[in-house]
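Sample entry copied in:
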Amino acid sequence: MLAAEDLIHIVTGGDTIYSISRFYGVNAEELMKINGITDPSRLLVGKRLVIPSDESAFSNESILPAAVSQSVILFDYNAQKGDTLYGIARSHGITLQNLLDINRFSSSHVLKAGDVIKVPGTTNPFANNTVSAGNQSILNTLRWPVNPGVITYMTGQMGVVIESEPYESVKCLTNGNVVSAGPWRKFGRVVIIEAAGGYFYMYGGCQTITVNVGDRVTPGMELGRLGINSISEKPQLFFMVFNNDMPLDPALAPRS
């Protein structure tokens, strides 16, 4: 019988032992052993897997606030004749809604030649060591799982840490299915949502979880309540987004 505190992952189409072990950063053989799997090629969709805990995978420093300050790079773009918001968003690898959110535009906004808008730059957003006041302000205008205070980037993880209020409701950003829920290393209790297009959204740092593996979720639905990080002693949500096993900048990830 599964322990109440086990981190559970439900197998979805396209999952393999290798992809699951890589996603969680665990040993594939240990993953098979703990789940009684002898043939990795016969992994059934819908099967619930226990994810082995490996506390050594993340050092304390990897989630300390002092180690997570890197910035999103945005720059001004002067709209040209013939430009559209959709075309600009597509050329910069973000969704139209992301572009609207960054610039505080309504869905009916009309772009004119000469307008100056904010777009994400081509510079690696994780190369800078500070988040400028302007970028912090822009980040705070986006929709996040909790009401954002200070938002910082996680060193090496390419996710964000969002300071908020203790026990605040953690809200889902997209439609999707709960594929994993439970305690995960030093991230507290974690919920992972699979959304359309191969996206996975990880919400960590919860004190409690209010959804179960296999649940269908919608934007704005509560996933849990924010806890106090034992290292920083602050209420912090650890938020990561992956697409096809590759981490994305959470500020630019699709929001339903």
